[in-house]
Amino acid sequence: MIDFYYAPTPNGWKVAIMLEECGLDYELKLMDLHSGEQFEPEFLKISPNAKMPAIVDHDPPDGYGDEPVPVFESAAILFYLADKIGRFAPERSDRRAMKELDEWLFWQTGSQGPMAGQLSHFKNYAPDNERDYGFKRYLGEFDRNLGVLENRLADRSYIMGEDYSIADIQAFPWAFIAKPLGASLDDFPRVADWRGRIKQRPAVQRAIDLAKDKQNRGRHRVDNNDIIFNQSSKSLKPKQAEN
């Protein structure tokens, strides 16, 4: 059994998709990010960055010892689960393919994901009188990353070739919500086709529907929720015990 700490966001969908694709049993630990559950000391032991998704694997593979294994950061979780199950990643012995997998996981983690997240912030949550510059800046960066993905898909069906992999699972959720972010896939037909094929996968549909009624949908914004939008290092300090 795997404990799955989750909220229905693009980053949460990544791991939900992987768990559903692999058919792994998991216990959903639905998190209320708007009330600050991510800063609870017990969760910080699992995810020091106070971010979901995170997992705790109570039946880890050989080599991890007998204790449950916590994993935080979506790419690290996907890689861990692919290694555990032996699916959706190249053979470790194929060093060139593993190098390329690392490149595309890091690309998503360091470029596509952060740019899309900032675009989402300025489109959906920033104060109305402060969003224009940020929105234009990150829309441009989001489009640039769509161009990177469009070029990669020029001679292949999926990011790693003809096989669907964790690189696709990692990159799909932010492309899936391009339109709500104020972007368009009209200039990126290969990305649109790739997105459409992945969207049709039953495991992907189950993951996107997971706790769908708990999505933020603009209810919590910068001007009404300091917990998720104005964080500082103080948020990570251990709470003082009550007298």
Automatic annotation (TrEMBL):
Sequence ranges assigned to domain GST N-terminal in this UniProt record: 1-89
PROSITE patterns, A to Z: GST_CTER, GST_NTER
Entry keyword set: Transferase
Pfam family, one: GST_N
InterPro entries from the UniProt entry: Glutathione-S-Trfase_C-like (IPR010987), Glutathione-S-Trfase_C_sf (IPR036282), Glutathione_S-Trfase (IPR040079), Glutathione_S-Trfase_N (IPR004045), Thioredoxin-like_sf (IPR036249)
GO terms assigned for molecular function: transferase activity
GST C-terminal domain ranges (all copies): 94-220
Name of the protein in question: Putative glutathione s-transferase protein
